[in-house]
Amino acid sequence: MTQKLRSTPPGRATLKDIARAVGVDVSTVSKVLNDGGISVREQTRKAIVDEANRVNYRPHALARNLRIQRTGALGILLPDLTNPIYAATVRGAMRQAEEAGYVMLVAEVADERTSAAAYLRLVSERRIDGLIIAVTAQSKEMIDAIKSSPVPHVFVNRRSKIGRSVTVDDQASGRLAAKTLIEAGHTRLAFIGSEPELDTSQRRRAGFVETCKAAGLPPIKTVVGPVSRRGGFDALHRLLSEPVRPTGVFAFNMLVGIGAVAAARVRGVRIPEDLSIVTLDGEDAIFTAPPLTAIATPLSEMGARAVVELDAMIHGREPQDVVIDIPPQLIVRESVGPPPA
Amino acid sequence: MTQKLRSTPPGRATLKDIARAVGVDVSTVSKVLNDGGISVREQTRKAIVDEANRVNYRPHALARNLRIQRTGALGILLPDLTNPIYAATVRGAMRQAEEAGYVMLVAEVADERTSAAAYLRLVSERRIDGLIIAVTAQSKEMIDAIKSSPVPHVFVNRRSKIGRSVTVDDQASGRLAAKTLIEAGHTRLAFIGSEPELDTSQRRRAGFVETCKAAGLPPIKTVVGPVSRRGGFDALHRLLSEPVRPTGVFAFNMLVGIGAVAAARVRGVRIPEDLSIVTLDGEDAIFTAPPLTAIATPLSEMGARAVVELDAMIHGREPQDVVIDIPPQLIVRESVGPPPA
DNA sequence: ATCAAATAGTCAATCGATTGCTCAAACAAA
DNA sequence: TTTGTTTGAGCAATCGATTGACTATTTGAT
Looking at residue B143, what is its pLDDT? Predict the structure, then answer.
């Protein structure tokens, strides 16, 4: 019941206004409001705090940040906002950023050219204290820019030689996918990966293959395509045109998995009667026909953790690679069944 | 072939550095680099420009903005990043923002409480020049905050008494949906709307009802639910439990439409043999079973236009409501057919 | 009563860039 | 030669907040 009596106008007031109203110096006001190592009479302190509340004072971020050389903003570079995988990651990052007192600048970068431009805007103009990179930086231009970056940066869901990263245990996802299919009785398995190959795809494949091998299965067929529903659609088509069809497929990513389901339907192959599919999870995977048995990965935790790491780096801690230690989890729905007789 | 000879370190240099190197005053450098009404010898100008290129100078955004009282940033408040409808809007906004030289601060606001907090951070701290609001502001707290906002703001895909908005012609979408179903021969129609009711839902319904009435159809059944796949799923379930079932349904939004398709499958009602569904379009609508016949609306154009309007307002132009004049367009896929015999 | 120390603040520089005003030198006109 | 105008560029204030150095007034100890 302290304030709130009258809802005051938005924070247009400056330190100077408060100082004038109370009759002290702006430096005094600043120090009082920031606990800045100063001794003031309780009376003065109260007058300042009250006035600050009355006018609903908020520090002018630009001025403050210019002085303290921090922006209170984080940037994130990502390739595709409409991709729910990124959206979930961004969400986690944004929540954590808010928690830690940052605002979030997001830049969707369609290609390496726009990447470089966005990067320049955010970093060279010193608009951010740290950068989360959710794109694969491959052009020399981008790599150089990032390597010589004056601000801390962390890759999320991507590993990179040129910086620290926060990822999940993709190999474990691959192993789990294989285990699921094998336990359902499948022996002819296939993998749908990405082209160009993402490191996530590569690790999931590695885990998948590892478990298949351990079970004594023949080498698995791999087919690749763009990371999109359409990519998965086309990929499964190709798989279904093979002389000897697989009965179980692991689609390395939810989008690709959804596309695969659509392709099966078009080809008249029933899931799971004719073909079992396991993929990574996401909300969309619940509403396919049939709903997808999928592996949940902690995307938003990954985003959140990226912010935590970045914040630590900003405060001078040594950067480190982190792998989120929440193990992948199988969500059983309806896309996996026994192989056809 | 001017620069690029050696790729220079990132923009750590300040005006002062350049001034020192060239042997002039910082104000001269500033004026030269900004075409700031000053006459200098060609020699001096060239020396400054060359040095600026050499050190890859970029103005320090904070310092510059503090002085000129503009941040070069826009904010956007939206409820759900993983919702592809918002993602598409944001994408359009972001592209246009880049075009216009802004960076974009995005805040996902789960509820009105976080809304208020995010709003404060962005606006009261003067981090942005303008705000795009993609959420429905209903709490008194939020409304007051926005009404007394010191920065220009525009609602996108939402109409509001407390500000200008950029929307699409939702009534036309509704009419087109009705026309599509009616022309396919349907007479028992239903509508799935939102709860709480969004203004978009309400307008789409109005257009839908208008055309139904004009065709002499009986009053249509409306059912509402949360704007999500799950909401559409539950809504269609309820519709299918009605004593007299509709044969054609208009789902006011893609997410809801996708949920409805899933519900139909679970109930064993075939689309389009037993039930026709038309909804709004989005990339996901292609990969349902069957693919959805849907109405495309210019979401990213809407986002882009919001930025254009905001930019105009920032430059002092009178705000105005705009309705994107790209008419909704029917994408014929497989979810609409003749009614069952 | 005297000196030291704590108390309560103020002063002024600073972050980096922008911009109105001033001013010296060069040049032209009278 | 004197006066007036241009050209070329520097000076200093400013945006709003932060912070180390410093001062003036009290209080306390001896």
Answer: 86
Q: How far apart are CA A245 and CA A236, in angstroms?
A: 10
User: The tokens of A55 are what?
Assistant: 């006018």
- Sites in chain B below the pLDDT cut of 70: 1-11
CB contact under 8 A, B58 and A284: no
Q: Which tens digits make up the pLDDT trace of B150-159?
A: 899 999 999 9
Domains along chain B with CATH numbers: 15-59 (1.10.260.40), 72-168+300-323 (3.40.50.2300), 170-296 (3.40.50.2300)
B69 CB neighbour count, 10 Å cutoff: 9
Closest CA to B168 of B322, B308, B310: B322
What sign for the dihedral angle of Cα B35, B40, B45, B51? negative
Write b or e for each residue in A306-325: b if 16 or more Cβ atoms lie within 10 A of its Cβ, otherwise e: bbbbbbbbbeeeeeeebbbe
**pTM assigned to the model:** 0.92
Q: What is the pLDDT of residue A146?
A: 86
The pLDDT of residue B11 is 54
The answer to whether the Cβ–Cβ distance between A283 and B108 falls below 8 Å is no
Alpha carbons within 13 angstroms on the beta-carbon side of residue B83 total 21
Nucleotides of D under 7 A from a protein CB: 7-20
Per the DSSP assignment, residues forming a β-bridge with A295 are A280, A330
Contacts of residue B120, defined as CB under 8 A and 6 or more positions apart, other chains included, come to A11, A58, B145
Per residue in A275-321, pLDDT (tens digit) is 999 999 999 999 999 999 999 999 999 999 999 999 999 998 898 99
Of the candidates B90, B104, B262, the beta carbon closest to that of A105 is on B104
Q: Which of A20, A51, A11 is nearest to A33 (CA)?
A: A51
